[in-house]
Amino acid sequence: MKIIIDADACPVVDIAVGIAKKRNLECILVCDNTHFIQKDGAETIIVDKGADSADCRIANLTEKGDVVITQDYGLAALVLGKGGKSLNQNGLIYSDTNIENLLFTRFIGKKERMAGNRTKGPKKRTPQNDADFIKAFNLCLDSN
Question: Rounded to two decimals, what is the model's pTM?
Answer without folding.
Answer: 0.86
